Amino acid sequence: MIFIIGDGGPQDKWYIAIWYNKVQKVTPVWVANRDTPIPDPNSSVLTIWADGNLVLLNKSRSIVWSTNDTLTTSRGASNTTIVAVLLNTGNLVLAYASNTSSIIWQSFDHPTDTQLPGQKFGRNKLTGVSSRQVSWRSYSDPSPGIFSVVMDPNVAAQYLFIWNNSLPYYTPGKFNPQTGAFSGIPAMTAMSQPDSIYSYEYVDNDKEEYFMLTIKDDTVFLRTLIDPSGQQKGMVWMEEKQEWMLYFSQPGVCSVYSACGAFSWCDMDSVPVCSCLRGFSALSPLEWSSGNYTRGCTRNVPLPCSLSSIILNTGSKHEKADRFYRTDNVRLPDGPHVAVQGAASRGDCQAYSYNGTCSLWHTDLMNLQEDPDNQGNSIFIRLPASEIPRTKSARGRTIGLVIGAVSAFFVLGLCCLMVVVKRLTVFRRRGRITKGDGGGLPFRYKDLQLITNNFSADKLLGRGSFGSVFKGYLQDGTAVAIKKLQGVRQGEKQFRAETSTIGRIHHVNLIKLLGFCSEGDHRLLVYEYMPHGSLDGLLFDSNNAVLLPWNTRHQIAIGVAKGLTYLHDKCRDCIIHCDVKPQNILLDASFAPKVSDFGLAKLLGRDFSRVMTTMRGTIGYLAPEWISGTAITTKADVFSYGMMLFEIISHKRNVDHGRKFFPVLVAEKLIEEEEGDVPALLDADVAGDVDVEELERACMVACWCVQEDESMRPTMGAVVQMLEGLLQVNMPPVPRYLQVLAESASRSTLSSSSPIYTS
After folding, report:
1. Distance between CA atoms of 286 and 284, rounded to whole angstroms?
2. Which parts are annotated binding residues for ATP?
3. Residues 22 and 121 in one domain
4. Whole domain around residue 344: which residue ranges?
5. 579 tagged catalytic
6. Which of 26-35, 240-249, 576-585 shows the highest mean pLDDT?
7. 482/549 same-domain check
8. Which of 177, 253, 568, 680 lies in disulfide reach of 634, CB 3.0 to 4.6 Å?
9. Known binding positions
10. Neighbours of 166 (CB within 10 A)
11. In a domain, 56, yes or no
């Protein structure tokens, strides 16, 4: 129970804590001595004191921390033995040795930053004591931070987020027991469904009022915590990834009061989300670099004590006077804790804004936000003159004119030379664009306009989820596909960094990114061109005369699986595609498949994360967890792949099989007693050339991929091995939704507990 923060943390700060025994990553869920770490664990003692309290003693045997329960000795005879027991729920209890079910004190009544399943969070109506979750000060410091969560003392079935023990800054709304959701989080309704592994409940009686997270599968590890960022986060442990995965967070970072501290602004579309205003720098660069921005920013140059030197006229003679620097498109702070008043006097003004009426800020400027719709206000920040570029004086302008006139002759000659070079360049502009090395070659927007005839309709290859794609040619004759992205709000620096990362991801079954364009509002990606277009055109287009033979389809299925395996397991960062479907599978000259749009999940950053929470993907390929609102993992891609594999097998859309949904037909064929009937699923033109063993294997793999329980779905790496015959595939259970569709009495012959495959 004794731990230290990180391998490189201070070696003189040790804590008594509770963490998971079966989670390899040490994750404290309760810390006893948050304010008073001990310098040497070997000389300290954790023991039960004579009065029945659990105490931590230091080297000099002084009390460092105690349960401080003054009622323990009065609850029984003085000679009654009291023991400390750590329960499997994560609850540390003090109880009588003769009856450990009689709890005297428990850590569940004194949470730190985390709530565990089975732990009540609320208030005792008899004693008036309320639970309070308090964040860590930082990710490396478990001492109490400035953010906390408490029950709302004025509104039932509601809890509040509090800043600095004083200011409520967010509530998810009232809890509705009928829907199992808070009014501000309607997506929680899915948690109350009968098949959900966890639920949130609210209890209110004469003795207590509380919320409690309940979990139906004790092999799943869930926790909710109030983060040092001021957000409440729900985390689930993913054993296969050996990582905690986020399955919900609230509120948005920019809705947390003082999330970025003083004199900074919050922008959800930037990385990092917090930026210091002009003339300011991070107060604590170390904490800022670790993602904790709450201490905010400080002035680079202090202001004078008096405002007598402030000027608003740039023509003033006071060269050292302070000025007001204008920042546009911001959402101004509001609320009673912001010192705003009419512009009757200057006082010690830090900033002002005018929007019909003039307002002044006399204290630290807090909670400025960038307005993504560019409809915000302008605010004028007081800065020393040295922090604002000076405008030229009249005398300076005169001197500049004289110097300009003297040098005009030389400049004129240079301009003539530039005109000649420019004319030559017009004829050679195609030569400016050459094939990149895959590391993210930057292109100019006007050059991409040129090679696509200004993105004309005759160059249009198609339209996708995030923009239109056009064809063009580089100087060496290489054909390229140019995607004009829509809805990407990243800054140029972030966009270049992301595309550079994606450009270095290479796999034979992933589309190759040759380069990008990031100019102004233009965001474009340049890919290698695929002559056979997308898979959906060959599978579903009735005007396409190409009927893919079975062996080609089988190789396409394996190639796509290999590409997804690379994204999930071989990249530095796991990339979940989130939209696996035939439209996003491109085919080269030899019909080798290449997964496209694989980088958009990463590239679109925070914008994309918000899209994901409201369901991302294409109807017909969506995994059930998208709809239930639970955490999205790589298994969502596996489900989509399975649905697409059905279509690769049949050469038709899953819904284009008369009155039957094709996965239902596959399930029925697999459970029929007679063998050799599966080829009937294929077109008559190719059924005779099919490898029956490969076909049956592919059908079973597809059924395994579309299981409702994501833990039953194989990884994409296992899919590759099964399709290649390296792993024997066992008969899959029929997913419940297919059972309903099939209405087949014979489905009981399939085992619902059989493993996916055997080696």
Report:
1. 5
2. 484
3. yes
4. 264-387
5. yes
6. 26-35
7. no
8. 568
9. 484
10. 9
11. yes
